[in-house]
Amino acid sequence: MTLPFDRRRFLATAACSLAASPLVTPVAFAALPTDHRLVVIILRGGMDGLDVLHPYGDRDLTRLRPGFDIGPAAGAVDLTGFHAMHPALAPLAPLWSAGDLGFAQAVSTPYRDKRSHFDGQDILEAGTAGDVPDAVRRDGWLNRLLTLLPGATGRTALAVGRDEILLLRGRANHAAWTPEARLDLAQATRDLLLHVYHDDALFRETAEEALLLSAESLQASDTRNANDRMFAFAAEQLRQESRIAAMSLAGWDSHRNQPRQISAALGRLSDGVLRLRTDLGPAWAKTVVLAMTEFGRTAAQNGTNGTDHGTGGTMILAGGALKGGQIWGEWPGLAEAQLYDRRDLMPTGDVRAYAAWALHGLFGVDRGSLGTVVFPGLDMGRDPGLLA
Prior knowledge:
single chain, alpha/beta, 34% helix, globular, disordered N terminus
C-alpha cells in the first residue's frame, strides 16, 4: 500500500504515544517563512551560572567556593583572561573560536526571593515580570511571538504523560512532540489499523502519517541515546519546514555533589548543541540557540558540596547566526556587599532582554511589540549586538 506523507499535515494533527525518559521532554515546533532558526532550551533546576562560566578573575570566587575546581588551572577553558568555561563544555571551544558561542553573565528573570523552581520556570517561560494576572502567565512568550509573525504555522504533537511546555502555550496554533514517539506495531496490526480507518479521512491520514513518523523515530533510536535523539529530531525538523524549536533539559538542581552533577548536565547540553550544528548543516549559519534557566544559585557552596537556589545566573548562546566569542553583560562582583541579599550573584541584566534582541534580529519583530506583546513590560535596553 502506498502511503502519502505530508509532513506539515502530520505535524499539525498527529498524535503518538510516548516512552517516558527522565532526559527527554516534549519538543515543540513552529514553521515560519524565513531562513532563520531559533532553538530555545529551558534548563530546569536552576543552573549554577558561576560554575558554567567561571569568573575566575574575581578573587572572591575561590573564597566562596573552596571545594570547587575553578579556572584554567583546574581544567576550565580560558575565554577572556577573566572568564573560563567549565571543562565539560570543552567540546564547544571551537564554536567559541568561530564566534558561534557566547555567554550572557549575571542575568535573571524578574523573579525574586521566593526561590521556587515551579514559579521561576513559569515566569521564565511566560516571559512576564511575575506580577501580572494569572491569565497572562498562562501563555508562553514563544506563542505570543507567533501571533506577530505573518505566515507562522503552529505545529504540535501530543505528549502523553508529559506536561505541556509553557513556552509555546497560548492562542496561536502550536504543538508539542517528542522524539520518543512510539507506534511499534506488527505489519498485520498496521494493516488492520489502516483498514479500520479507511473510510474516515481524518483518522486514516493521521494513522498513515503517524506510522511513517514512528518508523523514522524507531530507526533513530537504534543508535542514539535519548538526549541525542531529541536534538537530532529537532535538527531534522528545522532542516525542513520548522523554524522554531523549544525543548527542556532537566538535571541542574545541584544541592549536593555539584561537580559531578553539573559535569553530566553540561555534557548533555554540549552534545546537544554539537548535534544541532552537525545535523543542521548549512542551516546552522542561520541559527541561534538560547539556553536559559529559571534562576541562578548561591554564590557560596553549601555544606554538601553543592549550591542552593539563588538569583543571578548565566545564559548560554550558540549558533552560526551569533556574533559570539564574547561575554555579554556587566559583571557585578562577588564581594559580600556586591551580592544580592548578600548571598546570590547580583543580576545586572534581564534574560528576557537577550531573548528579545535575538527575536528582533532573527525575525525582524519591532521593539514595541517585543516589549508589550511578547515580554509585557520589558525594557530591552541597549542592543547587545548578539547577531553577526
